Amino acid sequence: MKQTATPESSLSADVPEYETIERRVLVIGAGAAGARAAIELVEQGIDPDDLLVIGKRGHGDAHTTWARGGINGALGTLDPEDDWTVHAADTLNEGHHINDPGKVETVTKRMPGLLRELDEWGMSFSRTPDGDIDQRYFGAQSFRRTAFAGDYTGEAILNTLVSQAQDRSIPYRENVFISRLITDGDRVLGAVGTDLDTGEFVVFDAEVVILAAGGYTSLYRRHSSRDDENTGDGPALAYQAGATLMDMEFVQFHPTGMVGDRYGELWDGRLVTEAVRGEGGQLFNAEGERFMERYSPDQMELDARDVVARAIAKEIAEGRGTEHGGVFLDISHRDRSFIEARLPRMYERFAELGVDMAEEPVEVAPTAHYGMGGVHVDDNGETAIAGLYAIGETMAGVHGANRLGGNSLAETVAYGQVVGEAVADRLQAQVDRPDDGTLSQRAELHLRDLVTLANSDGENDPEALLKMVRSLLWEQTGILRDEAGFEAGLRRIDTIRTQAADLAVGDEQSRSYEFALNLGFALIVADSILRSARERPESRGAHFRTDYPETEAEWQRNILFQRGSIGSPNLSTATPEAPSEAVQKALDAGYELDYHQLE
Ligand SMILES: Cc1cc2nc3c(=O)[nH]c(=O)nc-3n(C[C@H](O)[C@H](O)[C@H](O)COP(=O)(O)OP(=O)(O)OC[C@H]3O[C@@H](n4cnc5c(N)ncnc54)[C@H](O)[C@@H]3O)c2cc1C
Questions:
Q1: Among residues 374, 433, 386, 398, which one has the least CA distance to residue 181?
Q2: Same fold across 18-250+372-429 and 438-546
Q3: Which of 113, 208, 235, 268 sits 20 to 30 Å CA-CA off 389?
Q4: Active-site residue, 334 included
Q5: Range 18-250+372-429 has CATH code 3.50.50.60
Q6: CATH 3.90.700.10 fits 258-367, yes or no
Q7: For residue 271, which atom of ligand 1 is closest to its CA?
Q8: Per-residue pLDDT tens for 130-176?
């Protein structure tokens, strides 16, 4: 439906034309999390025509397709001793016990069933010789519980989910960029977006909004994501709407990113999947030393990601790195046929770059990979704003201070299902709310800002300012951090914010328009990371402070970040609940991987 603003609903005459779309549920994001939530809604009896799934890219083109190594679930295919309680215990140990144990339990309990469901839906899992779903080692897990499809697991999952969504006639709209959620202060009313193909504005009128818009790690200069994904849209949209962010300081640096000086700038930071180490890959410094023997003699390369990333960063900083600024990762002791079968995408990628993984090592260094923080939600995935839910990489709580590899894909499908069930219940109980004009009034205020932004003729290039944000986060909240860095980072944010008030932007279909919107989100998220990191005077998991190198028992707390009444952020803390008896028993049993069984 096309409409022009009416005089009553508009505050000025220059409100542009916009289309209004009414749906009971708007799902923002069509990666694994958004797709799984939409499928569950239909499974629970919601009419697909009451839903709309949107993404800022084409259908099937979400960041999930880049996930490589696998998805966790205690199937016990190869290690029958494994079960969900041990999976939960490993997750809490890796999260340094500031995860939300209830959410961890939800994910780990549901995963075996959800893996079997994906299998029934036709996902191309790699198989054991007996035809069961195969499972591989991933770092810091007590048993082989990472199911996989070669090293293209994310692509296989998303293909499966998109095809299931299409079978259920779930409507999808491509290339719409959401720049604002609309609320009445307590409840969500909808969202405002720009169609990037046509430049037209769209106002979504929805009783429920599910934010499944991904994470925030491409806001770091060296990152494993696509540059224009994982730009922090989910947390920033939720924060602007009045929801609370949690644990934003915890950013996981994956130990093995490709090294730009060796493979070209385009490849800098791109992921070399943990599966390479899971399948026996070994790390060497430039002196030929297998240095993990010094840092983690028992678990070696399969220790937790933060431990391995810090070890590599130290080797490089102390002059034992390669001339290109990395270390060597070597799996050439495995047969070529094994590498081709278990790591096909990695093998092909390096072959195209002229490197034969079956003959020689590759060069790697840490890269920003996953934001454990995100939107604070309750057990059903709902935020403090009624009707606004957050799932997948946008939500916080499952991973604590560090994420186990393979657990984020697990979280996407588990919380997709949880939220689908909760929203279906809500819709069955809820009567339509009356339209009192609040949505259009508030949407139009934002539309006027968008009109002012498009074609603005200022001094500063939004893409250049985004790059400045990326550099400052890498330099001031990287693998090793301290108070002076946080203060310097916050000052740099202030400067960029001032420059961002004077942008040179093209029309609504231009890249600079999208960059300008991203910049607004990036400033919110960067500020939340810096302030939360400054608030935590200890080291824990991925948050390593050189000025506070110890973990402090009293800081077994989450940091909450919320908009204050006069616009500036408020920080507070909350203590996670205790795990259930069953999970505590698994924690007490002290399971851990016997690394030497891999040799
Ligand atoms: C290189 C790489 C490898 C990985 N490998 C693994 C692995 O092996 N195992 C594992 O468990 N995890 C892995 N991860 C992490 C995992 O891929 C992600 O956490 C997960 O896919 C996130 O899914 P999601 O559905 O939450 O978000 P995404 O897949 O990022 O989807 C986000 C969706 O939101 C849309 N969107 C975003 N912003 C807006 C906006 N403003 N307006 C409209 N739409 C918007 C996007 O278009 C997209 O549709 C990997 C991550 C990377 C970067």
A1: 386
A2: no
A3: 113
A4: no
A5: yes
A6: yes
A7: 1
A8: 999 999 888 888 999 999 998 899 999 999 999 999 999 999 999 99
- Residues 89 and 76: their CA atoms lie apart, in Å, by 15
CA nearest ligand 1 atom 26, residue? 392
Best mutation site among 21, 52, 53, 64 for ligand 1, i.e. most ligand atoms within 8 A of its Cβ? 64
Is 56's C-beta closer than 6 angstroms to any atom of ligand 1? yes
Q: 532 φ, ψ to 5°?
A: -70, -40
Contact (CB, 8 A) for 139 and 277: yes
- 363 touches ligand 1 (CB under 6 Å): no
pLDDT in tens, 440-451: 999 999 999 999
Per-residue pLDDT of 183-229, as tens digits, reads 999 999 999 999 999 999 999 999 999 999 999 999 999 999 988 99
Among 24, 68, 270, 277, the active-site one is 277
Alpha helices in 95-130 (DSSP H): 101-120
Closest by CA to 279, choosing from 134, 402, 411, 409, is 134
Q: What is the pLDDT of residues 406-418, one digit of tens each?
A: 999 999 999 999 9
Question: Which residue, 319, 411, 379, 526, is CA-closest to 73?
Answer: 411
* Residue 29 Cβ contacting ligand 1 at under 6 Å: yes
Return the best residue to mutate from 71, 197, 399, 409 for the ligand 1 pocket (most ligand atoms within 8 A of CB): 409
Taking CA atoms only, the protein residue closest to ligand 1 atom 3 is: 67
Given CATH 3.40.50.2300, say whether it is the number of domain 438-546. Answer: no
State the maximum Cα–Cα separation within the chain, in Å, rounded to a whole number.
Answer: 74
The burial class, CB within 10 Å (0-12 / 13-18 / 19+), for 377 is: buried
Atom of ligand 1 nearest to the CA of 231: 38
Name the residue at shortest CA distance from atom 31 of ligand 1: 31
Q: Which residue owns the Cα nearest ligand 1 atom 2?
A: 67
Average confidence score pLDDT of the chain: 94
Cβ(393) – ligand 1 distance below 6 Å: yes
Any ligand 1 atom below 6 A from CB of 154: yes
CA-nearest residue for atom 8, ligand 1, is: 69
Does the beta carbon of 35 lie inside 6 Å of ligand 1? no
pTM: 0.95
The per-residue pLDDT for range 509-565, each reduced to its tens digit, is 999 999 999 999 999 999 999 999 999 999 999 999 999 999 999 999 999 999 987
Domain boundaries, the chain: 18-250+372-429, 258-367, 438-546
- Tens digit of pLDDT for each residue in 241-270? 999 999 999 999 999 999 999 999 999 999
276 alpha-carbon distance from chain centroid: 21
